[in-house]
Design brief:
The complex is a heterodimer of chains A (about 325) and B (about 425).
Chain A lengths: L8 E10 L2 E11 L4 E5 L6 H8 L7 E6 L12 E4 L11 H10 L5 H14 L15 H13 L5 E5 L7 H16 L3 E6 L2 H7 L2 E6 L2 E7 H7 L4 E7 L10 E9 L5 E8 L5 H11 L2 E8 L3 H12 L3
Parallel strand pairs in A: 3-7, 3-8, 5-6, 6-7
Antiparallel strand pairs in A: 1-2, 1-4, 8-9, 10-12, 10-13, 11-12
Helix pairs in contact in A: 2-3, 2-4
Chain B lengths: L2 H17 L2 H30 L3 E6 L5 H10 L3 E5 L7 H10 L4 E5 L1 H6 L3 E4 L5 H20 L5 H8 L19 H34 L3 H4 L5 H34 L5 H10 L8 H28 L3 H7 L1 H19 L4 H8 L4 H10 L5 H29 L9 H9 L2
Parallel strand pairs in B: 1-2, 1-3
Antiparallel strand pairs in B: 3-4
Helix pairs in contact in B: 1-10, 2-10, 3-6, 6-7, 8-10, 8-12, 8-14, 8-16, 12-16, 12-17, 14-16, 15-16, 16-17, 17-18
The chains are: A alpha/beta (about 325), B mainly alpha (about 425).
Chain lengths: ~325, ~425
């Protein structure tokens, strides 16, 4: 068993460019043991490149990379489960044969692998398909098969690139439950996603990336506390022109009340901005404010705030 | 960890998936069935034909042809009865007589037969093409022999008609005898077969590599194993499929020889074997060299095809990129015929030692008995050393290419891949 204090994944000063395009710049990343770590960011922000560098598929132009305490190419086989962003299975192989093959290259004995595969197929409601060819399965089912292939060898570290994309809500929930179960067993999970709500529910730590750079990282609860005063939830009746002002980053409408003129909004403020100014402007505009409260920001709001401040490259 | 375990897992997967595929079963069964069918079916049909309905009436108005002609017709599988002109004066009498036999036809010979080789077939239907040819040959041969008999004995005329023979007495003690027809046929057939299997399994490997790359399977596999383990497993897996197919084909050939040929009528079998040119049946040494040529040739080209597959991202790209490699296989086949004209020349020796030509050309020369053992051994050595080089280079290209999506690398980029540690 490895040292509990040692980070499972460690990137330091990592750079990667493709020709003129900078994909990752000066990235530091620490994933502690036992965490569910979310790598978040919009498309093209460098999440997948980071993961591919972690897996040793791409070499970093500069910087240090360590996975389970060793350079990536040394950690093959040693208990990493990897679900790439672009899924790939042998289309002509039968589901069970395919899973056995994936288990075999991870060093699992046939009997063991078969029992495990059966269990997981049952759990993910694919038992009836175990003798069918992969090409006969729907995209979502194929994805579940590939997920089983990723976890079949009970890895100490799971690296999942956009694991929820392409799954229906029921299966997304099931996947969330399974990921939590792995965490409970002591598995470290690093997953990338652009679905902020999902990440908010699931992750205890996150790293936000935008425009090839890290904009923010840390423990999710801590981040929210730190960014806490930035969001105001307001219910009011009347016109809404007064909401926009210098301290406002964005306004999200949560819908109208019973009457046409009643609103429920969340306003995101620049860090350090005073919510009082907004309240005063509302009162001056003569609207009827029913409630006005500073709330804990959602991950999405933190993200929008930081990205808009740092700009997109 | 055990690196061979991964290669072995890749190998067995590749092998089982391919061997169980419909394409493998169909090609394995159909190719020899078609080729065997082309040889055996007409033979068997002829054989059956000789047992039923092969009676023939012969009316010889020349009065001299029957003694020579009858044995020949019998050899061609006919049961012959000679009739007089008076016996069959009327058409009704002929029909009655033919039904009695039953006879296929009445073969009439007269002075025109002796002069021009023309004979008359009176029957309900013309004979099948092969029988027609046999009858025609028997008749013409007899006529020619009779016409020439004045000047010599029929036996010597017969040898003349066989096409004669050019014998060689060669100056200098080391000059080897020119290859027999059988050896020529063997060299051509073996070389073409090598060309075919190298190309078939080479492109099969290319597609297998491409499948893993375009299907994004390589990324998962390479999170569990090193690139060379994957490449080795692929190359050996497809190679094992090739060897299996060869083994099945050889087994089927042996089965046909052992099971089908004895079923043919004896006289036909003897005639068939006698008709084989001498030297056509390969010895164990040549079969062994064929196997070595196949293995070295396959691995040499496999490493090139694997590298090409790893370089490309689409099927269309691969079609283009494989062209130089395919040309490398085609060139020795083109060179084969000029080389066979003069298998001992310096040019032939050198060409057959070029590593990418050697699998085909050196086999051709060995089959012709034109290559001394040391040359064959040298070719094997050169191929082996080259194989180490191509495997190394292909491994480097594969390692980078298999995970690289997008445009195909340029030559300078490839060079960079090769030099990257």
């Amino acid at each position: 068993m490895m040292n509990r204090d040692l980070p499972v994944v460690r990137l330091q000063g990592v750079f990667k460019s493709f020709g003129q395009v900078r994909a990752v710049q000066d990235l530091d990343l620490l994933v502690p043991q036992g965490a569910i770590y979310g790598l978040l960011g919009p498309n093209g922000s460098g999440k997948t490149t980071t993961i591919r560098i972690l897996m040793g598929i791409l070499g970093a132009d500069a910087g240090e990379v360590a996975l389970l305490g060793a350079p990536p190419h040394k950690t093959r086989q040693s208990g990493v489960g990897y679900l790439p962003e672009e899924r790939g299975l042998y289309r002509r192989m039968k589901v069970m044969d395919h899973l056995l093959f994936l288990a075999r290259i991870r060093g699992i004995s046939r009997g063991d692998a078969e029992a495990r595969a059966r269990g997981w197929l049952e759990r993910l409601e694919l038992t009836a398909w175990s003798g069918r060819r992969v090409e006969e399965l729907s995209k979502g089912m194929q994805q579940k098969v590939q997920f089983i292939g990723t976890i079949l060898h009970d890895p100490a570290l799971l690296i999942l690139d956009e694991p929820f994309s392409g799954l229906d809500p029921l299966n997304q929930d099931l996947l969330e439950i399974i990921v939590r179960e792995f965490q409970a067993q002591g598995t470290t999970i690093l997953l990338s996603t652009h679905l902020m709500d999902q990440a908010e529910r699931l992750c205890d730590r996150v790293c936000l990336m935008a425009g090839s750079r890290k904009v923010l990282d840390g423990e999710l609860r801590e981040l929210k506390r730190r960014e806490g005063r930035g969001v105001v939830a307001i219910d009011f009746q009347g016109p809404s022109h007064w909401v926009n002002g210098p301290e406002v980053v964005s306004v999200q409408s949560l819908g109208h009340g019973g009457e046409a003129s009643s609103h429920s909004i969340r306003v995101q403020l620049h860090p350090g901005a005073n919510a009082q100014a907004l309240l005063v402007r509302g009162v001056d505009a003569g609207v009827r404010i029913q409630s006005f409260s500073v709330v804990e920001p959602r991950l999405h709001e933190i993200f929008v705030r930081y990205v808009s401040r740092n700009g997109w490259e | 960890m055990d690196p061979w375990r991964n290669s072995w897992a890749v190998l067995t997967r590749e092998y089982l998936v391919r061997v169980r595929s419909r394409a493998f079963v169909i090609s394995t069964v159909l190719v020899p069935l078609i080729m065997g069918g082309l040889v055996v079916v007409p033979l068997a049909m002829e054989g059956r034909g000789s047992q039923e309905g092969s009676g023939l009436l012969v009316m010889d108005r020349t009065g001299v042809m029957t003694p020579l002609l009858l044995p020949r017709l019998a050899e061609a599988g006919f049961t012959v009865e000679v009739v007089d002109e008076g016996e069959l004066g009327t058409p009704q009498a002929l029909v009655r007589r033919m039904e009695l036999g039953p006879y296929l036809a009445l073969l009439e010979l007269d002075h025109q037969t002796l002069n021009e080789g023309r004979a008359l077939w009176r029957g309900e239907a013309p004979p099948p093409p092969l029988r027609r040819l046999a009858i025609q040959q028997a008749v013409v041969r007899t006529a020619v022999e009779l016409r020439l008999e004045v000047e010599g004995d029929p036996a010597s005329v017969g040898r003349l008609l066989d096409g004669g023979k050019l014998e060689f007495r060669l100056l200098g003690s080391t000059a080897p005898a020119p290859p027999s027809e059988g050896r020529m046929a063997l060299a051509i057939a073996g070389a073409f077969f090598l060309y075919m299997v190298i190309l078939i399994y080479g492109t099969m490997l290319l597609r297998a590599v491409l499948e893993e790359k375009t299907g994004r399977i390589a990324e998962v596999l390479l999170s569990a194993m090193r690139p060379w383990e994957l490449m080795l497993g692929k190359v050996l897996g497809v190679g094992a499929v090739g060897l299996s197919q060869l083994a099945i084909w050889l087994g089927m050939a042996a089965l046909i020889i052992l099971a089908v040929l004895p079923g043919l009528p004896d006289e036909m079998l003897a005639g068939y074997l006698a008709a084989l040119p001498p030297g056509l049946i390969p010895g164990p040494g040549l079969l062994g060299f064929f196997l070595v040529s196949f293995l070295l040739g396959y691995f040499l080209y496999a490493s090139l095809f694997a590298a090409v597959g790893a370089m490309c991202s689409t099927e269309e790209e691969a079609q283009q990129a494989q062209f130089p490699v395919v040309m490398l296989v085609v060139v020795p086949v083109i060179l084969l015929f000029p080389l066979m004209e003069n298998p001992d020349s310096t040019a032939s020796v050198i060409l057959s030692l070029v590593p990418f030509f050697a699998p085909i050309l050196m086999f051709g020369r060995v089959a012709l008995d034109a290559a001394p053992v040391w040359q064959a051994a040298l070719a094997v050595g050169i191929m082996g050393v080259t194989l180490l080089g191509t495997a190394w280079a292909a491994g480097r290209i594969y390692r980078v290419g298999i995970l690289m999506q997008g445009k195909r690398p340029t030559v300078p980029e490839l060079w960079k891949w090769l030099r990257r540690p």
